[in-house]
Amino acid sequence: MVSFRRAGVALLLWSISAAAETFDYVVVGGGTAGAALAVRLAEASHSVALIEAGTHYELTWPLAAIPATDVLPVGSDPDPEVHVPADWGFVTTPQPGANGREVHFARGKCLGGS
Q: Keywords on this record (predicted)?
């Protein structure tokens, strides 16, 4: 388990060992709004758990260390062999305006939003 505590916000990655802990608030979604809400609640002396679906992709995706590569997943191929772990890999139904092709619908899962 990796645990970071900042301003009273618990970020628990790769573990459900915090299931036995109790929190005043549980914020689901670590995007910009969820993270901001969690910090505001913690600043008001509430205990807060911030839950995010994604992994710590900076450790598992080699290109994450290169500046500006955060834009690569946007519109990228949803093929599991190609796309980054921070993307859900959603595709649309076949689109008539795209000659019947499915279109990748980029949706992220990482702390800080996407």
A: Signal
- Residue 92 in contact with residue 101, Cβ under 8 Å? no
Taking only the tens place, the pLDDT of each residue in 51-107 is 888 766 667 777 777 777 766 665 556 565 656 677 777 888 888 998 988 887 777
Which of 73, 39, 43 has its CA nearest to residue 58?
73
The separation between the first and the last C-alpha atoms of the chain, rounded to the nearest angstrom, is: 24
Residue type, 39: V
Is the full-model pTM beyond 0.70? no
Return the H-helix or E-strand segment holding 9.
strand 9-13
Give the whole-angstrom CA distance, residue 86 versus residue 106.
10
